[in-house]
Protein: Transposase InsO and inactivated derivatives
Organism: Carnobacterium alterfunditum
Amino acid sequence: MAYELKEEGFKLKDILLVVGIPESTYHYYVKQLKKIDSNQRLKEQIEQLFFQFKERFGYKRITNELKKLGYSVNHKKVYRLMKEMGLKCVKFIRKSRKYNSYKGKVGTIAKNKLNRRFSTSITLQKLVTDVTEFKCTGGEKLYLSPILDLFNSEVIAYGINKRPILDLVMKPLEEAIGMLKEYATVRTTLHSDQGWQYQHNHWVKTLKKNNVFQSMSRKATCADNAAIENFFGILKQEMYHGEKLVSYEELKSRIEEYIEWYNHVRSKAKLAGLSPVEYRIQTSQSAE
């Protein structure tokens, strides 16, 4: 051991007697030095993970990642070490104006079939969607329209555009329908708010043609679509708020990168500490 005295033909207790150190004291300091070594290695691993995840992870998620690597460590210890190291997730929530696509009754208003029942044990059974707005440099704006699977909170398709046109929501819908035809095992319900895009005849007919139930939130009731609102909050907290405005193309690239990371890497407590894709794969393998 690194800190134990080599006997060199002498007994340890005799050596300690000569130098005047009690054996219990010796073993105490050996233990403390080992602990220092262990903490130093842990600190190095924490620092590596913190910057690997672009400073987006706090102590709880860092603890989860450490456990994936085989460390047996309490979240309180990780919190203490991160505090000592000055590592703090500085991403924060800043309220911004929500994009509102509601223009009154301009088409079909569907019933609220989802009715805030956001959980499901079946993949592709319940999907949610909405549109959110970002500001860019030069006075430009970026609009994002994702479709989220409530089974594992995975973004299965999304559209990005400079304007909130119908094509923004139709492209991800068509992509999602392609997945439903191949992988869905039950009839799907797709939930949205009452935005004009979701009342549009093309949207409504596409859902009916592909045997997808349409569901809508009640007017001015954000809680009816809380799952997608929560995703928007996480996304903006972790990669948009607190950052300098960038061009449309740069922000588009960052969002695409973030969604890939969110799906494949970002762990969620409700998914047993796995990312959405990891959870889907693991669940699929368990069912076989």
About this structure: The domain at 126-286 is CATH 3.30.420.10 (Nucleotidyltransferase; domain 5). Strands lie at 126-129, 132-135, 141-149, 154-161, 189-192, 213-216. The first helix runs from residue 12 to 19.
